[in-house]
Design brief:
Low-confidence stretches: none
Strand order of the largest sheet: 4-1-6-5
Order of helices and strands: HHEEEEHEEEH
Oligomer: single chain
CATH architecture: Alpha-Beta Complex
Number of strands: 7
Largest sheet: 4 strands, mixed
Shape: globular
Strand content: 25-35%
CATH superfamily: Nucleoside Triphosphate Pyrophosphohydrolase
CATH topology: Nucleoside Triphosphate Pyrophosphohydrolase
Number of helices: 4
Helix content: 25-40%
Distance between the termini: 34 Å
Radius of gyration: 15 Å
Length: 183
């Protein structure tokens, strides 16, 4: 049994939807991921799993976004699952470190997460869509940040005043994750 597939299945099946958007996302993800299989890697086909890390400051009033070079939009750090990743959370935390320079421990239990299946433009090559599991974490806003080769900028943004250049679902994702974190 593949540990990553089992972890993805666990996160998908145990999500407690709080909206129709979340119910639809859970059903969609479940159609891709069984108990021990699913499109985990980029090589799995045009529709595959990704992990992202939505970082908030301790006040939960700011989130850390990267300006994605290919997409030309501000988005949370994230990307493809890799063979060495032991869990979805580990992949998300690795992506946070790669894209922002902020290193944090992999949480034993993810405090909040969401599911987002989004289509991609042709600038993403053979990737047609990402089945993204986004985890929320809280980090020190004073931590040094760096810009990776995949991004043009990294910056903290007020959660109630995000930049105009964000994917359409980002506002809903941030709102949902904040609701889960505040409970």
């Amino acid at each position: 049994m593949n540990l990553l597939a089992s972890d993805a299945h666990r996160l998908i099946s145990t999500l407690e939807p709080r909206s129709q958007r979340e119910r639809d996302a859970q059903a969609d993800f479940a159609s891709f991921f069984g108990a021990d299989d699913g499109p985990l890697f980029r090589e799995s086909g045009p529709d595959h799993l990704t992990a992202s890390c939505v970082a908030f400051d301790h006040s939960l009033e700011h989130t850390l976004l990267v300006f994605h070079r290919k997409g030309q939009f501000w988005v949370q750090p994230g990307g493809h699952i890799e063979e060495g990743d032991r869990s979805v959370a580990a992949a998300a935390v690795r992506e946070l470190a790669e894209e922002t320079g902020i290193e944090v421990a992999v949480p034993a239990e993810v405090p909040a997460y969401d599911l987002d299946h989004h289509a991609l433009s042709s600038s993403f090559g053979r990737c047609a869509s990402h089945l993204d599991i986004g985890i929320a974490i809280v980090v020190d806003r004073e931590a040094a940040i760096t810009v990776s080769h995949e991004s043009e900028d990294v910056r903290w943004w007020p959660v109630n005043d995000l930049p105009a250049e964000v994917p359409p679902q980002l506002d809903q994702r941030i709102d949902g994750l904040l609701t889960r974190l505040r409970c």
